[in-house]
Design goal:
The chain is α/β, with parallel strands linked by helices. It has 5 helices and 7 strands; from the N terminus they run E-E-H-E-E-H-E-H-E-H-E-H. It binds guanosine-5'-triphosphate (GTP) and magnesium ion. Pfam families: MMR_HSR1 (PF01926).
Length: 197
């Protein structure tokens, strides 16, 4: 699946511009700068597919990528960055909200947590929102290369404690790094189960 071609399909600024429902989809969500676009690139092995940046607020639309004609990956704008104008942030939140609650072909949301920062208040708000609407999600830790082994272990335990207290069960946390490639094969295997055909 991930060895095949991957093509940009659509950049969706407003909900009426969503591509038609065809294939299954997996979406990437999380705070601004957590590494959503970088993870999409690492998964597909294409460094310039999704645009990444040091500056939070880079991704401003829902970007759809088609993997081997079998699965759509959806790179979404981040949340929680103070420098993004409020009206912009509200517009993105609205598109994301409508997409996540209404997309029948959405199989999983990868909810990314920066390993350096751990779970923040707005991540908990996202989990609440997703749990309340029964949108299935999985926690993915990013930027694992930034932490020492001991700090990683502590963070993984703290994050597992958070998810264990959730009202619904969630799949195991996957620790990743777009830099070193840690966890990428594991995540590919997980997402592969959602591909059609
Ligand atoms: P927005 O689109 O603004 O919400 O950000 P994003 O979540 O898509 O983050 P993006 O992929 O643009 O990455 C943000 C910054 O983090 C960039 O400078 C990346 O190079 C860096 N980054 C992403 N993943 C990793 C990682 O695994 N390790 C390290 N060290 N840096 C990373
Ligand atoms: Mg991005």
């Amino acid at each position: 699946l991930f060895a095949g071609p991957c093509d940009f399909v659509a950049a969706v600024p407003t909900i009426d511009r969503l591509p038609p429902i065809t294939l299954t989809e997996v979406a990437f969500a999380g705070r601004s700068n957590v590494g959503k676009s970088s993870l999409v690139n690492a998964l597909t092995g294409r460094n310039t597919l999704a645009r990444t940046s040091n500056t939070p607020g880079r991704t401003q639309q829902l970007n759809f990528f088609l993997l081997a004609e079998k699965l759509l990956l959806v790179d979404m704008p981040g949340y929680g960055y103070a420098e993004v104008p409020k009206t912009e942030a509200a517009r993105w939140a609205n598109v994301i909200d409508l997409y996540l609650r209404g997309r029948s072909t959405l199989r999983r949301v990868c909810l990314l947590i920066d390993a350096r920062h751990g779970v923040k208040k707005n991540d908990l708000d996202s989990m609440d929102w997703l749990d309340q609407r029964a949108v299935p999600y999985q926690i993915i830790m990013t930027k694992s290369d930034k932490l020492k082994q001991k700090d990683r272990d502590d963070l993984l335990k703290a994050t597992s404690d958070v998810t264990r207290r959730r009202p619904a069960a969630h799949p195991e946390i996957i620790v990743t790094s777009a830099e070193t490639g840690e966890g990428i094969a594991t995540l590919r295997a997980v997402l592969g189960q959602f591909a059609v055909g």
